Every structure is written in C-alpha cells, then in structure tokens.
Amino acid sequence: MPGSGSSTRNGGGIRSQLGTATNVRLSVLSEPYWAEFEDRFGIDPGLTRIGYLFLAASDDELETLRTHVDLQHRFGVASELLTAADVGARWPVLADLGFSGAGFCASDGYLNQHRALRGFLTAAEAAGATIECGIEVLGFEVRADRIDAVRTTGGSVQADVVVNCAGAWAPTLAQQLGVVLPIRSRRVQLLHARTVDALPPDLPWLIGPHGQVHIRREGTGRAQVGGFLGKDETVDPWAFDHDADEEWIGAVLTEVVRCFGIEVGRSSVLESWAGLYPSTPDQHPIIDRTDAGMVVVGGFAGLGLMHAPAAGLLSAELIVGGQIDSLEPDEVSLARFSGRVQTVEQTGFQPWVFEEGRTRMGERCSYVKAGLALSVLKTTRASCRLRQRIASRRLLPSACLRSR
Ligand SMILES: Cc1cc2nc3c(=O)[nH]c(=O)nc-3n(C[C@H](O)[C@H](O)[C@H](O)COP(=O)(O)OP(=O)(O)OC[C@H]3O[C@@H](n4cnc5c(N)ncnc54)[C@H](O)[C@@H]3O)c2cc1C
Questions:
Q1: Torsion region of 63: left, alpha or beta (phi above 0 gives left; psi -120 to 50 gives alpha)
Q2: Can you give the residue range of the structural domain that contains 349?
Q3: In terms of CB atoms within 10 Å, which of 38, 59, 158, 160 comes out highest?
Q4: Higher-confidence residue: 285 or 399?
C-alpha cells in the first residue's frame, strides 16, 4: 500500500539545514516542488514554515553548526547562526537555558505527509499510472542477465524499467539479484500530545543538542515530540515493534523539560508510534541502476519525505535520460560504498559513524568487494503483509517526469 511504510509514520519535517553538501543539494532541488505543491499536484500539503532551530550546548557544537550554516549558504540557503543572546531575545522561553547559540532557518518547517502522498498519487494516476494495492513483489524473471518481468502475488508483470523503492525492505528484493544494499533500518519513535499554552505560536521546531530530543507544535494545541535519547536500535524491518515504548515516552518527556524547560504531561499524550529510518552508512540515499537493470531509490534515513521530489527528479533523469544530471551521480551511487565513507550526515540524528569493520554502535560489519555489506541485515519475510506493485517508471511522481 502506498504510505504503509515510513512515508506516513514520519514527522513531516522539511528542511534545508543539513550538514553535508549532498543532502543540502537534495533539499534545494526539492524546495520548488514543496513551495509549488498545490499548483503542481492540486492539494494543499499544509506546509507550515515555522523554522528549525538547532540548539548548541557548547562552543564546540556551535562551531559545528557554523560550518553547516557556511555550507548551506554556498547553496543559497538563508540559514543563520545565532548567539545565545540572539536566541533569548527572539524566543524568551529559551533564554537562560544555557545554550551557546543555534542554527536557524526560517523557511524550514513541516507539512502533512498524508496530503503530500495523496498529491503524488493523484498526479501519478492523472498522468496514466496504475496503482495496485495489496500485491506483493515476490521476485524477478531474469533473461540474459537483465530483469524481464516482476513476479508478484498478482501474477507476472513485464517491465522495461523496475524501480526498487521498497524502503526498509529494498535490500531483500535487491538480494534476489545478488545485489547487496548497505541499508539498515533504525527504529525511531514519535508522539503527539496535548499542550495548552506550553508552546508559544512563534516557537520554531526545537532540536536539542546532538539531536537527542526535539519538539514542535502540531496544529493548534498539540505538540510533536521525538528523540533518540542516546539509543539507536537497528531492527529487523520484517518484525519490529510499531508501538512506541512506554519507557521511551516517559524518558523523552523528562528530557523535553530538562532541555527546553517545556512541560508536556504524561497524561496529555494522545498517540505514539515507531517507524523506520532505512539508513546508508553516510545517510545519503542510493539512486542508481544495477547491472540487471533494477533502479534502486532508497536509503533516505530520516530525510525521505523532504527529499522525495529530488528523488523523483533524479530517478526520472536516470531512467529517461540514462544518467543523473542534477547532481554528481557518484554522490548517490551504490559504488561509493566500495571505498571509505567520506562524509556522514549528522544533523538531527544520533551520531552514527561506520568505522573499519565496526559501527559506532558496536555491531560488526563485513566489507565485500562490491561495497560495504552489513552482516546484520536480516532477510526473513516472516511478518510482513505489506503489498504493493513496484513495476515500472509509471509509479514515479509525474510532476518529476514532467519537470525535465
Ligand atoms: C518516526 C519517523 C520520523 C521521520 N521524520 C521525517 C521527517 O520529519 N522528514 C523526512 O523527510 N523524513 C522523515 N522520516 C523518514 C521518511 O519517512 C523516510 O525516509 C521515507 O518515508 C522513506 O520513503 P520510502 O518510499 O523510501 O520508503 P517507505 O515509505 O517505507 O515505502 C516503501 C514501500 O515499499 C513497500 N514494499 C516493501 N516491500 C515490498 C514488496 N516486496 N512488494 C511490494 N511492496 C513492498 C512497503 O509496503 C512500503 O509501502 C521519518 C521516519 C520515521 C520513521
């Protein structure tokens, strides 16, 4: 089902405040699509530009934010570096909390991911796409080393182009063609709570030091709260707990008080859930074609909603024109993992660095000649009943195809 994976379980965040050139570029490429979403797709996605405020707890952290802001400026992003005094003057509720300063970008914000999904699907159908729900891709028929057809629970589908955009489950499908995708799934939790006056209307999305905890308002009278709290679980995407942990809910609300001085009572929690960040070692996506002709579009970590338009655009360039034009193809290639990972996106994430043969989280990794393969990836398909036909380029957002 469209939206049955991470795409409707996310926080709705859209931002250009990122820490690597690749991710900033992906945001800059996506921005016009979000700004003109209603004109292009006929649905108001509820884009609310409250700004993201990345708060620094130390001078060192502020220095890191300064390098990010400098990088963002190179790509035309109007972000700012704020001193502690600036932060207190703009948002008095944050004064005297001991922050060293912050990075801020007023055009960042959030949207309603359900409406965005509906916009993409409606536009795809209007452009001739057929969207079939309740059908699972089982495998591929290969002729002369190329995919000839996709085997599904609804029968075989001949396909000139096959796009593997199966999110956290993409590695399982790729593996059937002998392709190892260095994507593993990290479990992330969010909650919505009633807040009466706790959040001033002009308060941006607050991202605490090291991205450990964050809070923003969600419409009127509600808050969205999230955070890793130093825990970064890699889970089996076929069998993970979709409910948030009780322990996490208590801990994250305590951290919101400690970090931002904002009280959100336990009894005011309305809903909570967990979803997946399908992450690559550098937190950049893979948009590439494999030898057998499968186009892989995945590994978006916690940025896949905001970068969806760029993903559609780059995929369309690759499929229709034969190569990616709007970005240096190596930045999103699968082959980049055959060398050492150069830069890792860290803004808003639990720091997660792959070291030689071992991740920061202490799990063993194995390197293979073709790339960095994760021995921790499990491929059982036990509990998943999510089914959707992924067969041809017709499923790409039509506006992205049109934009060429
Ligand atoms: C809690 C949370 C907060 C997040 N916050 C943000 C945010 O604020 N901003 C942001 O940009 N991103 C955020 N993200 C990340 C974002 O949601 C993901 O990067 C994005 O949704 C990934 O999209 P996708 O299409 O690659 O994968 P998915 O949305 O997971 O889609 C994959 C689809 O493939 C289908 N599928 C899998 N296997 C098969 C098969 N064999 N046959 C048929 N269909 C199959 C699945 O059913 C699913 O529908 C967040 C994620 C989580 C979990």
A1: alpha
A2: 130-183+281-402
A3: 38
A4: 285
Q: How many Å is the Cα radius of gyration of the chain?
A: 21
* Torsion angle (degrees, nearest 10) of CA 214, 233, 115, 320: 120
Residue 79 has pLDDT above 70, yes or no: yes
For 312-341, what is the mean pLDDT?
Answer: 94
CA of 356 to the centre of ligand 1 (A): 28
d(CA 163, ligand 1 centre) in Å: 15
Number of domains in the chain: 2
Distance 141 CA to ligand 1 centre (A): 26
Pocket test for ligand 1, best of 235, 305, 345 (most atoms within 8 A of CB): 305
| Percentage of the chain lying above the pLDDT 90 cut | 77
Task: Say if residue 245 is in the same domain as residue 350.
Answer: no
Same domain, residue pair 98 and 235: yes
**Whole-number pLDDT of residue 348:** 66
- Ligand 1 pocket test target in 10, 245, 271 with most atoms within 8 Å of CB: 10
Number of neighbouring beta carbons within 10 Å of residue 59: 9
Residues 66 and 74: their CA atoms lie apart, in Å, by 13
